[in-house]
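New to this. Comment on this protein:
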Amino acid sequence: MESTLKAYERNTFVRYLETLPDWDRDIAVSTALRYKLGTSKDGWAIFWQVDQEDRVRTGKMMRYNEDGRRCKEGYSQDWVHTKLRLANYELVQCFFGLHLIGNTGPIGLVESEKTAVIASHYLPDFRWIASGGLHGITEFKMRSLAGRKVIMFPDVGAYDSWKKKADELSVFFDVTVSDLLERNTSKHHAGLDLADFLVKEAKAKTYEHVKNDKNVDSENLFSFDGPKAANGFNPWTGEVFDHRGYPADWDLIGDTEQVA
């Protein structure tokens, strides 16, 4: 693993991170190193699974285009343990990013590794990990999160599936499911994930971004009853950002009593 934590200038995924709002090369590289993102000889991203004891379980190799989208044509995904053909190897997967959860703080659980990496920058108060797939949440993998508050952020269209899984797991774990994307998207956005949402939020966050747009009624769009939103807001959803840079009511996601 350690031998792959370099050559980010030819890692198409890391280069994509550099282009995101509020990112630059230093942020992209430091985030890549924190998540132990590797680079294959062909410039693919390697998402290493490292547990809380710093044991390397395996690495998922994925090929990305320059726009941050997964390559859909041909050979575009593989596993390091398959490539190495290790003798007497037994695969026991863990959540991607598990080595970063520490001992405190809420845990944000998403489907894709890409989403966890991006969310870690925009919502740093959460410890972001990824299941690695729609059905990648199991009771065995959840044991490492015992005693922690876990909020699942399913992709659009996966809410019902993850809500059912959360209901099953809630007997043993403090886990809830966010309906953030379901509330702010439509059925036409199937497959959209939290990373897509956060990047769009970041682009729309400041008044300067849209004030000169002739297609936007800025006079009404940016009017509030009471003081202006000091930390910005999303003009398309009306959500007001707090000092951390995201809507304060996100802290209540899944807590129906507080929301009510």
Q: What stands out?
A: Confidence is low (pLDDT under 50) at residues 206-211, 215-228, 254-260. The CA atoms of residues 30 and 106 lie 22 Å apart.
